[in-house]
Amino acid sequence: MPGSALTRNAQVLRYLLEVAPGAGHTILAKLAYLADLLARQHLGHPITGLDYIYDKHGPFDASRFYSALSELERGGFMVRERADLGGYLGYPMLPLQPLPDSNLTDAEKEILAWVGHTYGSLTARDLCERVVYQTTPMKKAKPGQRLPMEDSGRSDPLEFDLERVLAGERAAEEGRVRPLASVLNELRARHHK
Question: 11-30 burial string, b = 16+ CB within 10 Å, else e?
């Protein structure tokens, strides 16, 4: 598989492992869920193709999740290690070779990185109880039901557009900017017509 394209779900999980190495199954699945929630809010669409069900331990799409993990293992992009995690057996996962070219946008990568850095160091219990179970889709669903992820989309018309913010940052880094005085003069002229 090296050199070939990974599925979108595998790319997302591998990217999350880069940011939160050592995550176990539960944490990795919940990080993907939180990334999809944020992406719906800031991009208007999810990052993964996962279809979350209110499972025994929260939001989960077992078949697609484990399929993506198998794809990563077969391709040599990650490894699961057996470890004693405070009295119970766990399988933290570690990234191996670099992620091949992906079709993740800069905005999607930014969301994945933020989620991984913000929540990746929590225990599975804390992540679920303090964060995941407090989200709107989890509060609206019942065990065994599909989560109403569409309820987590953009709701505030004043909310910022992450893709535009990142494009603005790139323009500034590349020197493609206008002086503030020019922008203010244009805004004043529009307002005083």
Answer: bbbbbbbbbbebbbbbbbbb
21-30 pLDDT, tens digit per residue, is 999 999 999 9
Q: Is the pLDDT of residue 189 over 90?
A: no
Query: How many domains does the chain divide into?
Result: 2
Residue 2 lies in a domain: no
Mean pLDDT of the chain: 87
166 lies in which domain range? Answer: 160-193
Long-range CB contact pairs, 21-24, < 8 A, 24+: 21/93, 21/94, 21/95, 22/92, 22/93, 22/94, 23/92, 23/93, 23/120, 24/85, 24/90, 24/91, 24/92, 24/93, 24/124
Distance between CA 171 and CA 16 in Å, rounded? 27
Helices and strands (H, E) in the chain, number of each type: 8, 6
- In this structure, the answer to whether residues 50 and 128 fall within a common structural domain is yes
Question: Is 167 found in the same domain as 141?
Answer: no
Q: How far is CA 23 from the centre of its chain?
A: 14
Residue 75 lies inside a defined structural domain of this protein: yes
Torsion sign over Cα 130, 131, 132, 137? positive
Evaluate whether residue 105 is within a structural domain: yes
Arithmetic mean of pLDDT, 22-41: 95
Do 98 and 127 reside in the same domain of the chain? yes
